[in-house]
Design a protein that fits this description.
202 residues; mainly alpha; Multidrug-efflux Transporter Regulator, Chain: A, Domain 2; two-stranded antiparallel sheet; 5 helices; 2 strands; 3% strand
Length: 202
C-alpha cells in the first residue's frame, strides 16, 4: 500500500506488513492492544495502531523475543505495563509516501537491561561456538594423527616389501653370478687338464 491512510482493515494491514491476519490478532492479544470497530463491528487500525504493529513485526524480524519487545514498548510508553492498550501520545508519525516510514529511528532502541541480556546471550553463544570448534579441531587432529600413523604403517610395509623383493632379486643375481663363475672355472680346469695331457703325451 503506497498511500498512507487514516485507517486500515485487517486485510490491508496484513498485506502491507506481509504477515497473516492470525499474527495481527495474536499481537493484539499479547500486547493488550485495543482495536476499534466500525459501526458494522469490523475491526480497523488507525495510523498509530498500524505503527505499533509495524514496530512489533520489525523487532520480531530482528529476532527479539516477545518479552523483550514488550519491555521496549513499555519503556517508550507505547504500551502500558497493565496491558490497557497503546499509549498513542508516545508514537511519532512520519507521513511519507510509504507506510514503513511511520517508524521513528529510535523505535527499536534497546534498554540497558535488554542490551545486557543480548550481550550475555551473544557471549554464551560465542563460548558455545568456541567449544564446538575446539571439539571439532580435536576430533580432526585425532583423525589426522590416525591417518598419519596408518600411512606410516602402510609406507613401512611397502618399504619392507620392496626391500624383500630387492633382496630376493639380488640373491638370485648373485646365485647366477656364482653359477657362471663355477661354470667358467670348470671349463678352465677342463681346458688346462687337456693341455697337460697333450704335453705329457708328447
Amino acid at each position: 500500500m503506497d498511500v498512507l491512510k487514516d485507517r486500515y482493515s485487517i486485510t490491508e494491514l496484513s498485506e502491507s506488513l506481509n504477515i497473516t491476519d492470525h499474527a495481527l490478532r495474536f499481537y493484539e492479544k499479547e500486547f493488550g492492544l485495543k482495536i476499534p470497530k466500525d459501526n458494522r463491528g469490523r475491526r480497523f487500525y488507525t495510523t498509530e495502531l498500524a505503527n505499533v504493529m509495524y514496530q512489533i513485526k520489525d523487532m520480531r524480524d530482528q529476532g527479539l523475543e516477545l518479552k523483550a519487545i514488550r519491555k521496549i514498548l513499555e519503556d517508550e510508553n507505547v504500551i502500558h505495563e497493565n496491558n490497557t492498550g497503546p499509549a498513542y501520545s508516545g508514537i511519532s508519525i512520519d507521513c511519507e509516501d510509504k507506510f514503513p516510514a511511520v517508524i521513528t529511528p529510535t523505535s527499536a532502541q534497546l534498554s540497558k537491561n535488554e542490551l545486557a541480556i543480548i550481550i550475555d546471550a551473544l557471549n554464551n553463544m560465542k563460548e558455545q561456538v568456541f567449544d564446538n570448534i575446539s571439539t571439532e579441531l580435536l576430533s580432526t587432529r585425532e583423525q589426522i594423527s590416525k591417518e598419519i600413523h596408518k600411512s606410516k604403517l602402510e609406507l613401512g610395509a611397502c618399504v619392507e616389501n620392496s626391500s624383500r623383493k630387492l633382496e630376493i632379486k639380488l640373491d638370485r643375481h648373485f646365485q647366477e653370478v656364482d653359477r657362471s663363475l663355477t661354470s667358467w672355472r670348470e671349463k678352465k680346469n677342463t681346458s688346462l687338464a687337456g693341455r697337460l695331457k697333450k704335453l705329457i703325451g708328447k
